[in-house]
C-alpha cells in the first residue's frame, strides 16, 4: 500500500525527494536541524549514524514512549 507524507519540514533539502526505504539509511544530519556536530555527538554517545539507527535506538524509543504516555495521562 503506497503511503504519502510531506516530509519537507523535517528533512534537509537534499533529502526531500528520497524514498522512505532509502531515507532509513540516510545520515541523521538529513533531518532538518541536525548539524554535523550533532551527528558526531549522537554517533559518539549512542552509536547512531543513520535515521534508522535513531529510530531503533532503545533510548530514543523510551523517550518517545514516555512523552506519549505522559500526554495520555493529562
Q: Number of helical runs?
A: 4
SS class: mainly alpha
Mind summarizing the main beta sheet? none
Strand content: under 5%
Question: How far from one another are the termini?
Answer: 35 Å
Q: What is the H/E string?
A: HHHH
Shape: globular
The total beta strand count reads 0
Total separate domains? 1
pLDDT under 50 segments (min length 5)?
none
Mean pLDDT: 92
| Rg over alpha carbons | 14 Å
Work out the helicity level.
Answer: 40-55%
Question: Main attributes?
Answer:
74 residues, globular, 0% strand
Structure report:
The structure is a single chain. The longest helix is centred in the C-terminal third of the chain and has 15 residues, at 58-72. With 74 residues, this protein is mainly alpha-helical. It contains 4 helices and no strands. The protein has one domain (13-72). Helix content is 49%, strand content 0%. It has helices at 20-23, 36-46, 51-56, 58-72.
How are the SSEs ordered, and which strands pair?
Layout: H1 20-23, H2 36-46, H3 51-56, H4 58-72
Short description:
With 74 residues, the protein is mainly α.
